Amino acid sequence: MNSEQRETRARLSLPMARDTMIVGTLAVLALYAGSSFLIPLTIALLVNVLIIAVSDRFVAVTHAPVWIANLAGVIVVLAGLFMIMYVLGSQATQFVREINTFEDQFDNAVLKITGLVGNDVTKFIRDNLISIDLSMVARAALGSATSLLNQFLLISLYVAFLMAERLAFRNKIRLAAPSPEIGADLSTVMDAISVSLQRYIGVKSFISALTALISYGVFRVLGLEYAETWGVLTFALNFIPSIGSIIAVIFPALISLVQFDSIVPFLVIVFGCGTLQFFIGNFLDPAMLGRSLNMSTFLVILALTFWTTVWGIIGAFLSVPLTVCILIIFSHVPALRPVAILMSLDGSLGEDNGNRN
């Protein structure tokens, strides 16, 4: 009897694995093919979560009516996003237009630091870094910001309608569920996702803003060109796990080599801003986020690679929030709970992911 049960389970598992692979493949293809529609919608959903977090905090502090708090949250968040996109968009064209004049200076600047390193590193610099097409790098890095600025109106419309249907949508989910139990489960999943995303986006925004302000102060003191752009990019790049903070230091450091005859500004940015990024990334960030996300470190890197491949640089910024949503959904589906355990940091999902501190 036991052998028959094992054979039955084996037969059942093969179709399940096949169907899972088919669904997964179709989902990836849909994400890639529908990126032009899904990216603004996803950004709008995350902005909506941030607005709700600001609105709830506003109510807790001022005890104002909910509609006033919602209006304040919309104004604060959308105004902040517009300022970020405007700075990037307005300086992107100027930066790309002038970067051709920097290429010869960049070649000479790279040679300044070859005397500080060994022969192997010098050979690597000469063979690789000097051959970099800075125009292509600049257009790839800043082109997404300009495109996002053009889509700001669409994102704002999505956010407005999401806020207008915030309470009605929850009621519609309950009414559309086949049973009250399923409706309660869906509400639990939505609450868990909302709490986790609010905590992540809120804390990450504060930490990124703090890092950007300090870095911007350093850039201004040094007299670095496009200091506003590098400050905004520092804020944005800190949302990319692991490599974002490194890129946020490398770009302004390279520009300082081009702009200044002395190597001192380069060293100040590398060691000063680099130390700041290291301290915040390894101490302040984990202390404030704690274990609320409970995501495997390997999963974070894997998610970064996957979403960057599917959605480009925007996918890199969205990789952690999107993976958090997937992890929470999997943890509430019995058939997918083992996958959620593998995705977690220590295998502990808890009864309610939204209540984890």
TrEMBL record:
Its main location: membrane. InterPro entries: AI-2E-like. It is a multi-pass membrane protein. The keyword Membrane applies. The chain crosses the membrane at residues 21-54, 66-88, 140-161, 200-219, 231-257, 263-284, 296-314. It is found in: Membrane. The keyword Metal-binding does not apply. It comes from the Bacteria. Keywords: Membrane, Transmembrane, Transmembrane helix. PANTHER family: AI-2 TRANSPORT PROTEIN TQSA, TRANSMEMBRANE PROTEIN. Belongs to the autoinducer-2 exporter (AI-2E) (TC 2.A.86) family. This is AI-2E family transporter.
